[in-house]
Design brief:
Layout lengths: L3 E6 L2 H9 L8 E4 L7 E4 L1 H4 L9 H7 L4 E3 L3 H18 L4 E5 L2 E5 L9 H16 L3 E6 L2 H10 L5 E3 L5 H5 L12 H9 L5 H6 L2 H8 L3 H8 L16 E12 L2 H22 L3 E9 L5 E7 L7 H15 L5 E10 L5
Helix pairs in contact: 4-5, 12-13
Length: 343
């Protein structure tokens, strides 16, 4: 049996901001758009006490927590800290790591658990990340990725929970269906209409009838509900495929000089990233945000990899001239698709 860990950084964005500015400690912190614009990216536990949640509109979050400290997201900083905690894991434990998102990863510790218990290893990991980086995390321990993920969700912050297949009766099946990983509001609603209120109900539900309710995804969800799932940690997912920068404005802009300098600023950061990482790109994308819902993206692929900052800038401005010149934009993003792996 494999031993898989799921490591979930607690309130990652606010936690990183608190490292940079210790005065934020014990204050409600919301990372997201400022001035009532955009949505909440993340909120610390002090802000969550007021009912603030990720993806909530900022104006609603501010109403709920009027004394919150509002911080615009700094994705480059968060990426830096992600690289730090992943490097800690690789240097001190194993390379068998699959990055699931910027604030979570899976680890296969099957070999490591021959000399120490999974709980001992998880405690070591949690203590190391907190002592070296001041970042809190929760860890789930299971025999596959689904059970490990459910374990890390069970206790936050700084929790460690074992959830193996043998634990499904007491720890998994008692949970309401909306607490199950990969089940959103719409799927939860469909399941409840069919009398599936708990994960146990899903585990015992007839698979053929379940397919009629939620479609082909029924197979995976039924397997998960019975404690099964994928136990392969896929390291190939860790290869970064693109790099992008996006900026949202308080007011729409269409002045060409302003657009030019914004695009240039973005491309300077992108070119610095490519040079620092020693990687290449030949596909670029310009994204324009017209309003809260409408986002337009246009791409260009060069025959060869881009050899200079000026070359990328010229093609990015061509995309703008041909596709966005007549629009007032509330946001502009630049992206490059990485052409080769890290050297």
């Amino acid at each position: 049996m494999k031993i898989i860990l799921h490591i979930d950084m607690n309130c990652f964005f606010p936690s990183v901001e608190t490292i940079i500015n210790p005065k934020l400690k014990k204050l409600p912190v919301i990372v997201g758009g400022k001035n009532n614009k955009g949505v909440v990216c993340s909120a610390n536990y002090e802000a969550r006490k007021y009912g603030v949640k990720a993806s909530m509109p900022m104006f609603e979050a501010i109403k709920k927590c009027q004394n919150a400290v509002l911080i615009e997201p700094n994705h480059e900083l968060y990426q830096e800290y992600q690289e730090k905690f992943i490097l800690l894991l690789k240097e001190n434990f194993t390379n068998e790591i699959e990055i699931a998102s910027i604030d979570e990863c899976y680890m296969d510790i099957t070999r490591l658990s021959k000399n120490k218990t999974p709980m001992q290893i998880a405690i070591q990991i949690q203590n190391l990340i907190f002592s070296k980086l001041s970042l809190p995390c929760s860890i789930g321990i299971g025999n596959n990725k689904f059970m490990a993920k459910m374990g890390s969700n069970s206790k936050k912050p700084m929790g460690i929970t074992e959830m193996f297949e043998r634990d499904k009766i007491l720890k998994l099946w008692t949970l309401p269906i909306e607490k199950m990983h990969m089940i959103g509001k719409s799927t939860s609603s469909l399941l409840k209409k069919s009398g599936i209120d708990t994960i146990k109900d899903l585990a015992f539900f007839n698979i053929n009838e379940l397919i009629k309710v939620i479609g082909i995804n029924a197979f995976n969800l039924h397997l998960n509900a019975n404690g099964g799932g994928d136990d392969k940690v896929n390291k190939s997912k860790n290869i970064q495929k693109s790099f992008s920068i996006f900026q949202t404005f308080n007011k729409p802009i269409n002045n060409y000089d302003d657009i030019f300098w914004i695009i240039k600023k973005h491309i300077l950061k992108i070119w610095d990233f490519l040079q620092t990482k020693k990687i290449n790109a030949r596909t670029i994308t310009l994204t324009g945000k017209k309003d809260f819902k409408t986002i337009i993206s246009r791409s260009f692929t060069n025959k060869q990899v881009f050899s200079s900052f000026e070359e990328i800038q010229m093609q990015m401005l061509n995309i703008y001239d041909n596709n966005f010149a007549n629009f007032s934009l509330k946001g502009i993003g630049c992206c490059v698709k990485i052409e080769q792996k890290y050297s």
